[in-house]
Amino acid sequence: MNASSFEPAAYTAQLESKKNRLIELLTPFGAPAPEVFDSPLSHFRLRAEFRLWREDGQRHYAMFEPGDKHTPILIEDFPIASPLINELMPRLKAFWQVCDQISNRLFQVEFLTTLSGDALITLAYHRPLDDAWETAAECLAAELNVSIIGRSRGKRIVVGRDFAEEALTVAGRVYRYRQPEGAFTQPNGTVNEKMLSWAYDALGQRNDDLLELYCGNGNFTLPLSTRVRQVLATEISKSSVNAALANLANNAIDNVTLVRLSAEELTQALNEVRPFRRLAGIDLKRYDFGTVFVDPPRAGMDSDTCELTRRFERILYISCNPETLAQNIAQLNDTHRITRCALFDQFPWTHHMESGVLLERR
Q1: CATH, domain 3-41+188-361, list 3.50.50.60, 2.60.40.10, 3.40.640.10, 3.40.50.150
Q2: Is pTM beyond 0.90 here?
Q3: Of the residues 215, 306, 320, 341, which is catalytic?
């Protein structure tokens, strides 16, 4: 990406194009004009992953065009990444250039940073890691003031913590999050705060309960829990469930029950198709759900889960794929109408976009 790509005029034109695409997809459903939440033009991405490429006797950060694993693009700095990633990149490179224990058979580096200034670096190797590597990694972690995770076949060594700590502000309250290595987190922290604030406002203050599907590490769960009596949240990933439980405890939130179920399994439980031991002790009938909140993967909701959401008066839907969002809305359009929608530019300088809709029963 060349410097001219970061001109404000180019960004404004691209954001307008995304807005028009979202309008096109949602117009058949009578959607109102989308609220648009822009991104910083640079230094917005909190995660980055690089392969290493050897050239002139040195290892360099490298990326590749999709489908091409043989023509590296060597990276010295990465203007879309956070200031902290750009600060750490040359310092890590200088360390591996003089430390064989760190550089030997190192083939991939992943950075995870946060708006609050924390950082976790994962180093992946084509060799077994031993005590000598761990000693060198401890020196590296101390020099860079980060946590380090080393990965090789069948082994994972943690120096420091295996998560980064984040702090996000919604409606004047600061929420603190653990973001585990390898688990999904929103890549654009600034836009994530805007997205959380929009969902918080769209939900409104309620006197009933919230069902949340695909809750991840509790990114939305924490602020939304303050708007309702109680929340039943589901997530299938063990690492995300553990992080969400820690985040609920660290933020003193006690009105959320979290169960490790997929959206499809919860649909079966609510339909009384089959019992689940993981729901033992949870009486689903005691909830008075007024709203369901969903943030599904790119494939959107499966047909059965989409039918499940139809039961609720209000559906608050965050989507990373507007095409599958439109498909799901088409299934729900006979019973629900869009009353609010939004575009969140999580991925500037790409065609990808995040969107949100509030659907209410007709």
Answers
A1: 3.40.50.150
A2: yes
A3: 320
146 HSE (CA, 13 A, CB side): 25
Domain 47-164 is in which class?
mainly beta
pLDDT digits (tens, 9 = 90+) for 42-85: 999 999 999 999 888 889 999 998 888 788 999 988 999 999 99
d(CA 190, CA 176): 15
In the predicted structure, residue 3 carries a pLDDT above the cut 60: no
Cα–Cα distances (Å) from 317 to 154, 255, 295, 329, in that order, read 38, 21, 6, 10
- Show the tokens assigned to 71: 């023509």
Q: Is the dihedral of CA 190, 195, 198, 203 positive or negative?
A: negative
Domains of the chain, residue spans: 3-41+188-361, 47-164
Helices (H), the chain: 8-26, 83-98, 100-103, 131-144, 189-203, 221-225, 238-250, 263-270, 303-309, 322-332
99 assigned to active site: no
CB neighbour list of residue 25: distance below 8 Å, 6 or more residues apart: 322, 323, 325, 326
For the stretch 346-362, pLDDT in tens is: 999 999 999 999 999 99
Confirm whether residue 38 is marked as ligand binding: no
The span from the CA of 279 to the CA of 259, in Å, is 7
Helix (H, G, I), strand (E, B) or coil at 145: coil
Q: Is 97 annotated as a binding residue?
A: no
Q: Active site includes 320?
A: yes
235 is in an annotated binding site: yes
